[in-house]
Amino acid sequence: MLNKKHIIILAFIIVTIICYQFAITRPYTPGSLTNTSGTSFGNNNLDISELLRLQKDLKAQQNEIRKQLESLKFSVDNAEINGGAMCELDNNEERPRKQKSPIPKPTFESDPDLLYQMQLDERLKKTYKDQPNTCIPSDGKLLCLPNFIVIGTMKSGTTFLDFYLQKHPQIAHHNKKEIWYFNSYYANGIKWYADHFEQYNSLENQKLIGEATPFYINNPNTAPRMYATLKNAKLILLLRDPVERALSQYHFSLQWLKRNKQPALQYSFEHLIAEEADVIETCVRGHERYREAFAERKLAEERGEVDPDSTFDLIDPYYQYHSEKNWTFYKDCVKCDKCFQNGILHTSGHPTFGMLAKSLYYEQIDFWLDYFPLSQIHIIRYEDISHYPEKVLSEVEDYLGITHNDYGEFKPKNVVPHDKMGEETRSFLVDYFRESNKKLYKLLNRDFNWQSE
Ligand SMILES: Nc1ncnc2c1ncn2[C@@H]1O[C@H](COP(=O)(O)OS(=O)(=O)O)[C@@H](OP(=O)(O)O)[C@H]1O
């Protein structure tokens, strides 16, 4: 009588023979034997109908072998269950009985299609990304653009975040943190933009691409351009207590002007913020007057009181006063109709401009919401970076759909040492940002716990 060992050896021999059979009767793969015109291939010179007949025969043989294999496996399994009990008695060992289902489940041996499907699934998994595909074909290669973009704000830890994300194994390297494509170099085109990032020639094992330009958030051209180019990109926005952010920008500006051999700033922080507050007020007020006057003019034209071809002049004393100063950010503001509507002065990227305006977060985000939904903007509270850097990074990783990385020790980046501001200035600024902060907390349904009182 056959014992378990014999059955297993026999089964092994049979399986080996069957595997050999499979190897020589592999399933027909479209494209391997025929071309699109249906003509014959190779040295055998077989025609297509003969090939199809052969394929049918092989499939039938294959099915027959598969059936035999299943019944053989079934009897081996049963013998193993029964024989197992005997072995337990022979060896006087306690061994748990195997709970085998009498109906065999499909395995690789019994179903080569299953093996193929699993291999395919594995391959698809490798190329699957929970990220928008931001690659386009160009000159026979893939041109890949960012999947995520840190859009601001200036002086809120963007260098820190970018530095550590660049250490993540699933993030591609860039040749610089701030590319300024959407605010300043848009005309250079996407090839120029893509050249700043490590590129790939296949979707397999592709990394995520990202950059961090803090001036994107406050430039009125950026959101529409970004929407037109990368409307599915994941956006990241860091926000710092607006009062502290403004002071940090001032000190950074002093340093920047020196480093770039520019004339030093003539004014104190207090002087600049007072002046900017006046400009913002004027700018917004000036635009309101302009709109009112323009509406009146249109009515007068309709009533036939004014010749529509005559010029429409609005002499606003505030407007004139600030225009004469030729401030870049005032000119930007004049050009940006949408900014006026939001009551916000969008400022140029120059570090000395917009110490207040860049801290009016609600107004800036409100503008972006015309292009991107809030769910597409991951917001980080700057103050959490120093207290919980691991948490901040792991939340970013979750948002980007990448693994949690061990970054080692965290160190602050881009630090500009400076003194604290005076109490009077602080209370002016706290007051100045109160309304905007309130609206921000409501919009994001989140209390940033900045010094509001
Ligand atoms: N880990 C950590 N903890 C606390 N603070 C940190 C950290 N890393 C960077 N920083 C501070 O972030 C400020 C620089 O921000 P940015 O890199 O966004 O500046 S920039 O806009 O790119 O110039 C700058 O703030 P100031 O020093 O007040 O100017 C940095 O000191």
UniProtKB/TrEMBL annotation:
**Entry keyword Lyase:** no
- Could you tell me which residue ranges the Sulfotransferase domain spans? 146-404
> Where in the sequence is the signal peptide annotated?
none
Instruction: List the GO biological process terms.
Output: defense response to Gram-negative bacterium; response to yeast
Where 3'-phosphoadenylyl sulfate binds, per the record, is at 240, 248
Enumerate the UniProt keywords alphabetically. Answer: Glycoprotein, Membrane, Transferase, Transmembrane, Transmembrane helix
Task: Write out the ranges of the annotated region (Disordered).
Answer: 86-111
| PANTHER family according to UniProt | BIFUNCTIONAL HEPARAN SULFATE N-DEACETYLASE_N-SULFOTRANSFERASE, HEPARAN SULFATE SULFOTRANSFERASE
Name recorded for this polypeptide: Sulfotransferase domain-containing protein
